[in-house]
Design brief:
α1 (about 20-45) runs antiparallel to α9 (about 275-285). This protein has eleven helices and seven strands. The chain has a five-stranded parallel β-sheet with strand order 1-2-3-7-6. Strands 4-5 form a two-stranded antiparallel ribbon. The protein has two domains: about 20-315, Rossmann fold (3-Layer(aba) Sandwich); about 320-348. β6, α7 (about 220-235) and β7 (about 240-245) form a beta-alpha-beta unit. The protein has helices at about 20-45, 60-70, 85-90, 95-100, 125-140, 160-170, 220-235, 265-270, 275-285, 290-315, 330-345; strands at about 75-80, 145-150, 175-180, 185, 190, 210-215, 240-245. By secondary structure, the protein is α/β, with parallel strands linked by helices. Bound molecules: thiamine diphosphate. The site of thiamine diphosphate has 16 residues, from β2 and β4.
C-alpha cells in the first residue's frame, strides 16, 4: 500500500501542503520540540526515583501533533493509549498532572472538567470499543464531533481492536482510528504479529478506508486526519489511519532496546527524525529561524520548569490510596489487602 507523504525525509515538498496558518504551524513545531524535552526530563526524573515507568515519545511527535491539530478541541474527542503525551497536552491536560499520573498520584488521573479527553489506557485495545461507543453516542445525539482514538501496532493485534472496527463500520461511528505503527510491540516486530502487509489494509474488511501515512510527516498526518474528520462529520463513518513512525528510544524506561533493535535500523530511523524534517521545511519557507528556535527553547524551559515545580510541591499521597479508584464496589480480597496493609503499617 502506498505511503502518503507531503514532506519527504529531506523536508522537501512532494505533495500539496494543507491550509494551516503560520502561527499554527509554529505552535505545532514548538509542541513537537516540547515533546522531545519532556522525554529528557521525565527519563531523568524516573532515574532519580521520582516517576514510575515512563513511555518516551521521541520519534513519534509528528504522528501525535499532526493528527491532534486537525481536531476542534471543543467538539472532538481524544482517546489516547499511553504514548500520546502531546495530544493530551493539546487537549488541555496540564503537564504537571501528566507527571503526577506517572508517579501514581491520584491527582494525576483528574482530567480537565468539561474537557474532551479520555484518560491514558495501558490495557492494550481496551479503549477502542469505548471510543466507538463515544462516537456512536455523539452521532445518536446529533452532536457534531469526531473521536480520535490512538493505539499502537501491538494493540491492533488485540481482539478489542477488531471488535471496535467492526462496530464502527456497521454503525458509521465518526471515529478516527489512528494506529501509531512504530514497528514494535515492545520487542515483537510487526511481521511476527500479523500476516497482513499493513495495518491500513485491514480497514477494507470493516468497510472503512485505510490509509497508510508517513507518521513522521506532520503535514501528511494533519491532512489525512482532516480528511478523516470530514468523512466522520459528513456521516460517512470511520477511517483507519496507519501512521508509519519510528520509536527512537526504548519502549519504556523498563526496556533495553539494544537487546533486540538492530544497530543499522537505529541509524536509519534517526534519518527519519520528524522534527528535523519539519524544521527544515519551516526554515526554507521563512517561517522559522534561529531566533524562533531560541524562543521556542525558552518556552519549553518555562513549561517544564513550571510543571516540575507544581509536581514537586504537590504533597505525596498516602500509600493507602493505592487501593482507591480501581473498583466502584471493591472486591472482598482487595478490602482484605487494604486492611492488612493498614494493620502492618500501624504495627511498625
Ligand atoms: C491487554 C494487554 N496485553 C499486554 C500488555 C503488555 N504490553 C504493554 S505495552 C505492550 C506493547 C504495545 O505495543 P503497541 O501497541 O505497538 O504500542 P507502543 O508501545 O509501541 O507505542 C504490551 C504487550 C498490556 N499492556 N495490555
Amino acid at each position: 500500500m502506498e505511503l502518503f507523504q507531503i514532506l519527504d525525509e529531506g523536508g522537501q515538498l512532494v505533495g500539496e501542503p494543507p491550509a494551516i496558518d503560520d502561527a499554527t504551524l509554529v505552535e505545532m513545531l514548538r509542541l513537537m520540540l516540547l515533546g522531545r524535552r519532556i522525554d529528557q526530563k521525565a527519563i531523568s526524573l524516573q532515574r532519580r526515583g521520582k516517576l514510575g515507568t515512563y513511555a518516551p515519545l521521541s520519534g513519534q511527535e509528528a504522528a501525535s501533533v499532526g493528527s491532534v491539530f486537525a481536531l476542534d478541541r471543543e467538539s472532538d474527542w481524544v482517546v489516547p493509549q499511553y504514548r500520546e503525551q502531546l495530544a493530551m497536552l493539546h487537549h488541555g491536560l496540564p503537564l504537571s498532572t501528566y507527571l503526577l499520573q506517572r508517579m501514581g498520584h491520584p491527582q494525576g488521573s483528574e482530567l480537565p472538567k468539561d474537557g474532551t479527553l479520555y484518560p491514558q489506557q495501558v490495557a492494550l485495545g481496551a479503549h477502542l470499543p469505548q471510543a466507538v461507543g463515544l462516537a456512536w453516542g455523539l452521532r445518536l445525539q446529533g452532536r457534531p464531533g469526531v473521536v480520535l482514538a490512538y493505539f499502537g501496532d501491538g494493540a491492533s493485534s488485540e481482539g478489542d481492536f477488531h471488535e471496535a472496527c467492526n462496530l464502527a463500520g456497521v454503525r458509521k461511528a465518526p471515529v478516527i482510528f489512528c494506529c501509531q505503527n512504530n514497528g514494535w510491540a515492545i520487542s515483537v516486530p510487526w511481521h511476527l504479529q500479523s500476516g497482513s502487509p499493513s495495518v491500513a489494509a485491514r480497514g477494507a474488511g470493516y468497510g472503512m478506508p485505510g490509509v497508510r501515512v508517513d507518521g513522521n510527516d506532520v503535514l501528511a498526518m494533519y491532512a489525512s486526519t482532516s480528511e478523516a474528520r470530514r468523512r466522520g462529520l459528513g456521516g460517512d463513518g470511520p477511517t483507519l489511519i496507519e501512521a508509519v513512525t519510528t520509536r527512537l528510544g526504548a519502549h519504556t524506561t523498563a526496556d533495553d532496546p539494544t537487546r533486540y533493535v538492530p544497530a543499522d535500523q537505529v541509524e536509519q530511523e534517526k534519518a527519519r527524525d520528524p522534527i528535523t524534517r519539519f524544521r527544515t521545511w519551516m526554515t526554507a519557507t521563512g517561517r522559522w529561524d534561529d531566533d524562533a528556535h531560541a524562543q521556542a527553547d525558552r518556552w519549553c524551559d518555562e513549561q517544564i520548569e513550571r510543571a516540575v515545580a507544581e509536581f514537586d510541591s504537590t504533597p505525596r499521597p498516602d500509600p493507602v490510596t493505592l487501593f482507591d479508584n480501581v473498583y466502584a464496589d471493591e472486591p472482598v480480597r482487595l478490602l482484605r489487602q487494604r486492611a492488612a496493609f493498614v494493620a502492618d503499617r500501624e504495627s511498625r
